[in-house]
Specification:
Elements: H1 9-56, H2 59-64, H3 70-85, E1 89-93, H4 117-120, E2 126-132, E3 135-146, E4 149-159, H5 160-168, H6 171-200, H7 205-221, E5 225-230, E6 235-238, H8 240-246, H9 264-272, E7 276-282, E8 287-297, E9 300-310, H10 312-350, H11 354-378, H12 382-397, E10 401-404, H13 417-437, E11 443-451, E12 454-461, H14 492-502, E13 506-510, E14 514-520
Parallel strand pairs: 10-11
Antiparallel strand pairs: 1-4, 2-3, 3-4, 5-6, 5-9, 7-8, 8-9, 11-12, 12-14, 13-14
Helix pairs in contact: 1-5, 1-6, 10-11, 10-12, 11-12, 12-13, 13-14
Catalytic activity: ATP + protein L-histidine = ADP + protein N-phospho-L-histidine
GO molecular function, one term: kinase activity
Membrane topology: Multi-pass membrane protein
């Protein structure tokens, strides 16, 4: 899907990140400026307080106060200190605030402008920002003690303008830090947008949203099951049909495909990641046709795509069609045989041998009716009874005698008739095929009986049987003693086991050529 227009998601994200980074850095620079300004004033106040304490503790100041003209001594001393310390004013004054010194000589003898009461009361660490004769300034005022008595005050200050000049020297450093941070943020945003551009194929948010909506709708609408697996065999995507066919839980995302409860052959086949087409697998209640192929994008191997098709109904239709075809073939054979027998009877009558004709017709009728009567009397499930009669005729055409054991009994309501047809039909088919491969006489036995609240079905044959080491493997999908013919060999016994298990029963191989199915008897 090509992007129709507008900015891609990567470009929009880059612009958004750049704008956010710019706003954040401007706010940071502004906050840093105010913080530096406040820190500069606090540092200046501490510096002024230290200079004032040093001067107040000087013996020269205390000695000058005893002089008849204190200004003559204190003014030169204060100016020297001011110049040495790069301050804007150093003022020595009386406890009442009358100046002995000032950078502007005309201000000497005038009252000091500012708060002096704390210092006059003996407070040693009083600082303030105040507007005096030189403008707004940061100043400290400390007392000069003569013993315990305050005899003078010393004020040292620096104007706000001078403090701002000192602060401006740090502006280039702040701007350089902001510029470096901006460059790093831009570089990081560019790398993120480049990665996002590759990941989203330069599509915009609207295109991505539309693509997701369409693909999600298609994914859940298709009638084939779909699984997407990554390179490690973990489930990344599963649609509704796949959940239905495989009876998957909701939390399969991110789990390995061979750990989500699939039948072992299917889970192993999908976990291997090999490509295959139209393999038939069995689940707990379904037959599915599975295909798996590589998933690639721009030459990169992303994982595998698994498609599943429900083969259960088709298999049932094929089985029913084969049964109907067998019935038709049996009827055709019986009609042909009946015609031969009728011609024989007619010919015997024409030859004047009426007694022989009656004896021949009666014997044939008794032979055909004997099996039908036994089946109808012992098997109360009409579908199974019809199946056994049909299979007997089909077996007879192939030179195999199908016999019903004496006293065979199958009650009605035992299980779903379709499952019973699956069980009995597959066992009889396999037995007839096996008997054909064995020596004469070729026969198949079918028996049924009620025992300990269970019904036991038995099918045995005169064929070569199954080796003991293959007894368990015979029930696995794909196992067959017949040559492959592209018709899905190796499903019959697997279907028998699944059908029996669905009704709480079990199937086993007794001896080499006798299969026994036990189904619990449901009583009213």
């Amino acid at each position: 899907m090509r992007r129709a227009g507008g900015w891609s998601l990567a470009r929009q994200l880059f612009a958004l990140q750049a704008a956010i980074a710019g706003v954040v850095l401007v706010a940071l620079a502004t906050a840093s400026w105010f913080q530096l300004r406040e820190a500069g004033r606090e540092a200046t106040a501490e510096e002024m307080l230290g200079i004032a304490h040093t001067l107040a503790a000087s013996p020269e100041v205390l000695a000058a106060l005893d002089d008849p003209d204190p200004t003559a001594v204190l003014q030169p001393l204060a100016e020297r200190v001011r110049l040495d310390t790069a301050t804007d004013f150093v003022v020595v004054m009386t406890p009442d605030g009358i100046r002995y010194s000032h950078p502007t000589p005309s201000e000497i003898g005038r009252r000091f402008i500012g708060m002096i009461e704390p210092a006059a009361a003996g407070e040693n660490d009083f600082t303030e920002t105040y507007t005096g004769t030189l403008g707004p300034s940061v100043r400290a005022v400390v007392p000069v003690f003569d013993g315990a008595r305050v005899v003078a005050l010393v004020s040292v200050g620096r104007t706000i303008t001078a403090v701002a000049r000192d602060l401006q020297r740090q502006v280039p450093l702040v701007l350089a830090a902001v510029a470096a941070a901006l460059l790093l943020a831009a570089a990081g945003s560019w790398l993120v947008s480049r990665w996002l551009r590759r990941s989203t194929h330069d599509l915009g948010p609207a295109e991505l949203a539309r693509m997701y909506e369409y693909y999600d709708a298609v994914l859940h609408a298709v009638r084939e099951g779909l699984l997407l697996l990554d390179r490690e065999g973990r489930v990344q995507l599963v649609n509704d049909e796949a959940r239905r066919l495989l009876a998957l839980p909701d939390d399969v995302g991110g789990r390995r495909v061979d750990e989500i409860g699939l039948p072992a052959p299917l889970g192993v086949a999908l976990a291997e990641g090999r490509a295959f087409d139209d393999e038939i697998h069995l689940t707990s209640d379904r037959i599915v046709v599975v295909s798996q192929g590589d998933a690639r994008w721009a030459g990169r191997h992303l994982g595998t795509v698994v498609t599943l098709r429900d083969h259960t109904e088709l298999r049932q239709l094929v089985s029913e069609l084969q049964t109907v075809r067998g019935f038709a073939d049996s009827l055709h054979a019986q009609a042909h045989e009946a015609a031969n027998q009728l011609h024989t009877v007619v010919s015997l009558i024409e030859l004047g041998r009426a007694d022989e004709a009656l004896e021949f017709a009666t014997a044939e009728l008794e032979t055909a009716q004997q099996l039908t009567d036994a089946v109808v009397a012992g098997i109360a499930v009409p579908e199974v009874a019809a199946l056994v009669v049909g299979k007997a005729a089909a077996a007879g055409e192939r030179g195999v005698e199908l016999r019903l054991e004496d006293g065979a009994r199958m009650p009605a309501g035992l299980a779903d008739p379709r499952d019973l047809v699956t069980i009995v039909g597959n066992l009889l088919d396999n037995a007839i095929d096996a008997a054909q491969e064995g020596p004469e006489p070729r026969w198949v036995r079918f028996g049924a009986g009620v025992d300990d609240d269970a019904v036991e079905l038995r099918v045995s044959d005169s064929g070569p049987g199954i080796a003991p080491e293959d007894a368990e493997r015979a029930f696995e999908r794909g196992y067959s003693t017949k040559p492959a013919d592209g018709m899905g060999r190796g499903l019959g016994l697997a279907l028998v086991r699944r059908a029996a298990q669905r009704h709480g029963g079990a199937v086993r191989l007794a001896g080499k050529a006798e299969f026994t199915v036990r189904l619990p008897l449901v009583r009213a």
